[in-house]
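Methods — Computational structure assignment.
A single polypeptide chain was analysed. Its primary sequence is given first, followed by the predicted tertiary structure written as structure tokens.
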Amino acid sequence: VQLQASGGGLVQAGGSLRLSCATSGNIFRTSTMGWHRQAPGNQRELVALITSADTTRYGFSGKGRFTISRDNAKNMVYLQMNSLKPEDTAVYYCSLGDSILLTTPPQYWGQGTQVTVSS
């Protein structure tokens, strides 16, 4: 299984970005997918999860401003980020095989995409 995240970049505060994650493998459609992020000096934290049935769960950092979605026909998962703040600056990782109950870590991680929000 491979996950390829893209869409990161430099954006001004208040702006928007859409991250994409392309996956390979046949387990995508039955798997819970996730986005996590890690800022320098911080632990990796949950941003959002989405199950195969489109049930979503957001971490504190993603609630209200971020929206996770998936396209099973394309094996893609997305993270729409609006009203970005400088504190959203981090490397964003997509993941596969998350637990919606957060009982186990993801099975697979992508390589990460850098998001930098300037003030």
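Note: The mean pLDDT is 94.
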